[in-house]
């Protein structure tokens, strides 16, 4: 049987535990708010690790994104660099040719508005922002074809903005690369 005093003691214990939990939850909320504030301020005040810019107004005149420099290149170390641009409403080159089982660096930018670049069946998915270079590493396991749609609404012709990636056998690519400096699969 509980007495009056027992009841009072129990109530005091319950109140103390309740207060402790209340303080703990306030501390947790405070900690999270503090973390979010710190991360937000830190990100806003620190420069990003690596930002590469390009001038969309002179893209076609000079620099690495001039038309004659677009497409795939076999580098001296055996890797491949692909340069492409997005513009309303196509990619240049329209069809990218790359070798399988090879480290590939994709370097892209936009000549006008924001576009998106997605290679179906891979984790390649980036935005092409005018003024900035988007660089991504890719590696294809096997030869095949992948569609490459623009995944960012970029205007009235957006739904027609598609490209293609053709992955060929490593030896076949080397043969193509021996004949031409910049490769594409556009006939
Ligand atoms: Cu687009």
**Number of E strands:** 10
Distance between the termini: 95 Å
Mean pLDDT: 91
Helix content: 25-40%
* Element pattern in H and E: HEEEEEEEEEEH
Q: What characteristic shape results from the CA principal axes? A: elongated
**Count of alpha and pi helical runs:** 2
In percent, how much strand structure appears in the residues? 25-35%
Structural class: alpha+beta
Bound small molecules, by name, code or SMILES, are: copper (II) ion
Please provide a written account of the structure.
It is a single chain. By secondary structure, the protein is of the alpha+beta class. 28% of the residues lie in helices and 28% in strands. It has 2 helices and 10 strands. The strands form 3 sheets. Strands 1, 2, 3, 5 and 8 form a 5-stranded mixed β-sheet that branches. A 3-stranded mixed β-sheet has the order 4-10-9. Strand 6 and strand 7 form a beta hairpin. The protein is elongated, with a radius of gyration of 28 Å. The termini are far apart. The relative contact order is 0.16. The site of copper (II) ion (CU) has 7 residues, from loops. Copper (II) ion binds next to loops.
